[in-house]
Design brief:
RNA-binding; 27 strands; five-stranded mixed sheet; alpha+beta; 15 helices
RNA sequence: CGGGGUGUAGCGCAGUCCGGUUAGCGCGCCAGCUUCGGGAGUUGGAGGCCGAGAGUUCGAAUCUCUUCACCCCGACCA
């Protein structure tokens, strides 16, 4: 194993291979035997659980409740909303039968042809349809509104090409589905939730994001408006990390969800939906990692501090471990998660490399030398800086360091991201920046889908969003030369 | 779905063009000794239906056909 870990491909050569190696070698996930699906391993899942918990708290704090809706959706539900079908039809897993039987020819088990379902069931690619079919029964009056539900679930999208965490056939996510009395309230909800996502990305994951509105072409199937958070990976490609949709009355009408209004009339309910997925794991990995492996922000690290004894012989190992236990209990009292690695079958150098690969924020090493001096060697993962520090009061220093690292990791990603936003005013410049620098490009666009598609075909770059903080500015479209009133954000993306 | 590639030990690979003892190597694993402040050294050992099926041949990891799986590059997407 030792040698293997060193062979992480330098990112310059092939970033996606490097990424894949890292995910597997750090023990986060691996490809499963099932096409396009992945196995999330315990260490990876521990990170996801921390994300889940933090997000869930944020949802609760904004008045949402968790619920659960069926995995299977009758096929007919999909045809209710025209744009929605079109968006998802190409990537659905379909259940057609409900029983197996022994092959009469003796070749194991086959599908029982007698057991064909009258109406096929679709494995949910997203739950708007089944949820709005349910909301129809829940909503009769304006007094029943708003409904603010979230569900944690798995969904299936039969993607052509998959990539660990970023795009797998089955993935874990949360999807919020809300119903409102007015258009304004629904829009406010959708915007509130994209801000919750941005807050989470920046303050928990340490990943800076740009909030904005999707262009018509990139909008969610069935939405009136899609809001997004866009992050930038270290290879200069953008990653859509979360979306929040204002669905208008599209699903209210499609599922006939009408309610008695305050004024005594009838109206269709207004909807939003919003979601983030295990793709966030991909964002976390690609935003911070270096060639030694993962760099995890302390708030999401399953192990925040690893402690490694240096020793000769069993007796010394026992003494060092005892010493580490004392430090560990002080750290644990502060709510810090600590692991003592006193395995005697691998050497300390191996352990150092292993925890760096796994992104453990702080490493403490204690050997006989330290014991004599009353010191500990402390290393922080983000800078790889080592320091001999006093054993006395170590818990306060570690606590402070973890907080500092959370900031440092974010600041580093932020200054990288900011350095990768380029304003361009000509088509030549646009292509040049895309080819040679990458990252986000702020450029004028004439607002038409034709131009957007033409740019995509020519360069593979898409409009990531029209940022919320865009200021009005007159100019001409970099592609068509037609008048434009603001710059939008372009990038190549995952 | 198009174009390319790969299936040989737990992992990474060589061998395949040009068929020929008992199929190799590195890492890992097990046991012993020496080590232990940045991925240990050494000695011994275990581990294989060469992806699956059919064929050609005295003989197949190697040739032919069929099939399955996975990876990479596109189109699609959180």
């Amino acid at each position: 194993m030792a040698k293997e870990l060193k062979q992480l491909t330098p990112r310059e050569e092939n970033y996606s291979q490097w990424y894949n190696d890292l995910v597997v070698k750090a023990g986060l996930a691996e490809n499963s035997a099932v096409r396009g699906c992945m196995v999330i391993k315990p260490y990876g899942y521990a990170i996801w659980e921390k994300m889940q918990r933090a997000l869930d708290d944020m949802f609760k704090a904004t008045g949402h409740q968790n619920a659960y809706f069926p995995l299977f959706i009758p096929k007919s539900f999909f045809s209710r909303e025209a744009d929605h079908v079109e968006g998802f039809a190409k990537e659905c897993a379909v259940v057609t039968h409900y029983r197996l039987m022994n092959d009469p020819e003796g070749n194991g088990v086959v599908v029982d042809p007698e057991a064909r379902l009258e109406e096929e069931l679709i494995v949910r690619p997203t739950s708007e349809t089944i949820i709005w079919n349910t909301y129809k029964n829940w909503i009769h009056s304006y007094r029943d509104l708003p409904i603010l539900c979230n569900q944690w679930a798995n969904v299936v999208r039969w993607e052509m090409r998959t990539r660990l965490f970023l795009r797998t056939a089955e993935f874990l996510w949360q999807e919020g589905h809300t119903a409102h009395e007015t258009r304004e309230e629904a829009i406010e909800e959708a915007q509130k939730m994209i801000r919750v996502y941005a807050d989470f990305a920046e303050n928990w994951m340490g990943v800076p994001v740009i909030m904005g509105t999707k262009s018509a072409n990139e909008r969610f199937a069935g939405a009136v408006d899609t809001f997004t958070i866009e992050a930038l990976m270290q290879d200069g490609k953008a990653l859509q990390s979360g979306t929040s949709h204002f669905l208008g009355q599209n699903f209210g009408k499609a599922f006939d969800v009408q309610f008695a209004t305050r004024e005594g009339g009838m109206d269709y309910a207004w909807a939003t939906s919003w979601g983030v997925s295990t793709r966030l794991m991909g964002a976390l990995i690609m935003a911070h990692s270096d060639n030694n492996g993962l760099v995890l922000p302390p708030k999401l690290a399953p192990i925040q501090v690893v402690m490694i004894p240096i020793y000769k012989g069993d007796e010394e190992l026992r003494r060092m471990t005892e010493e580490l236990e004392k430090i560990a209990s002080k750290l644990r009292a502060k709510g810090i998660s600590v692991k003592i690695d006193n395995r005697d079958n691998v050497r300390s150098g191996f352990k150092f490399a292993e925890y760096e690969l796994k992104g453990v924020p702080v490493r403490l090493v204690v050997g006989p030398r330290d014991l004599a001096n009353g010191t500990v060697e402390m290393m922080r993962r983000d800078t790889l800086e080592k320091e001999n520090v006093a054993l006395e009061g170590i818990e306060n220093l570690v606590e402070k360091t973890l907080e500092e690292m959370q900031q440092t990791i974010f600041q580093k990603a932020l200054s990288f991201r900011n350095s990768m936003i380029t304003k361009v005013d000509s088509w030549e410049e646009f292509k040049d920046v895309l080819e040679n620098k990458g990252g986000f490009i702020l450029a004028h666009w004439d607002g038409t889908t034709e131009t957007e598609v033409a740019i995509k075909e020519a360069t593979k770059a898409t409009i990531r969003c029209i940022p919320f903080d865009t200021v009005d500015e007159e100019g001409t479209c970099v592609f068509s030369g037609k008048p434009s009133h603001r710059r939008v954000l372009f990038a190549r993306s995952y």
